[in-house]
Amino acid sequence: MGTRIVVGVVDSLAGRRAVTWAAERAAARGASLLLMAVVGGAVGAVGEGTVADSAVTAAGELLETHASALRQSGLDVEVVVRRGDPVRQLISATADQSLLVIGSDYRGRGDGPARGVHGVRIVAGASCPVVVVPDVDTADRRGVVVGVDGSPVSEAAIAFAAAEADRLGEPLIAVAVWTPLAAPRNPGVFPEDYLTNMQALTEENLALSLAGLRQDFPDLEIRSRAARGYPSQVINELAASARLCVVGSHGRGPITRFLLGSISHEVVLGLATVTAIVR
After folding, report:
1. Domain 1-135, classified CATH 3.40.50.620, yes or no
2. E strands, 114-231, in order
3. Per-residue pLDDT for 168 more than 90?
4. Are 121 and 86 in contact (CB under 8 A)?
5. Which pTM was predicted?
6. In terms of Cα–Cα distance, which of 230, 225, 213, 234 is closest to 165?
7. What class is the 136-279 domain?
8. Which of 9, 14, 10, 12 has the alpha carbon at shortest distance from 273?
9. I need a surface site. Which of 37, 80, 166, 182 has the fewest CB within 10 A?
10. CA dist 217 to 91, 122, 159, 239, Å?
């Protein structure tokens, strides 16, 4: 795993926020930056060559503008412009890198899938953790939210979230969510001892997942919450007032690399704040 952060750069508000977020993390971690722009288009279109050449030139100028400002602050910055499908090019750039940061490709009003399918595809295929940055001002928000489910990838998410919370001087808010058993003829009413046991078990597993964290981060404020509900909904509700949200790429069961788990997929689609998806 390298110590370089790759940033997918586009000329948008979210794209500029992504560059800023990546630069702040690189400065804190002593990492270098690779600013990357991808020029795509219809192959074989009349006049494509001239248009593409102009686009490559403009992309290079955009990258150099960002790089020049960042180098003045002492950061090690490289730039690269590639041609092709942006999703595939950004995925391929994540090999042996420590992190990919992209701005959300949300292009409309409303919630749900309108918030950017390209970002979801990039997150699903990347070889390293991915941070998706929306055009949202998080300066007045507090806390780093992390989803916990006891899986190995959840452990990686906790480690990432704790390090970021420590860097930002924010409390770590660890949340584990349990959902009552679903069945075709579920009456919707459950025995009280079942609900009590599920809550207690979730609290116990959450405590186990966080055990030892204070040894690594003695000054970190850690808050834990075990809640009944649907995981992505609870996580997004908490993320709406947080500076950062962290989830594992998938939790339960084997899932191929190019598929996101349902929970992380829904969290990315909701994108209530800057969100990291960790493998």
Report:
1. yes
2. 130-133, 144-147, 172-178, 222-228
3. yes
4. no
5. 0.90
6. 213
7. alpha beta
8. 14
9. 182
10. 32, 31, 10, 22
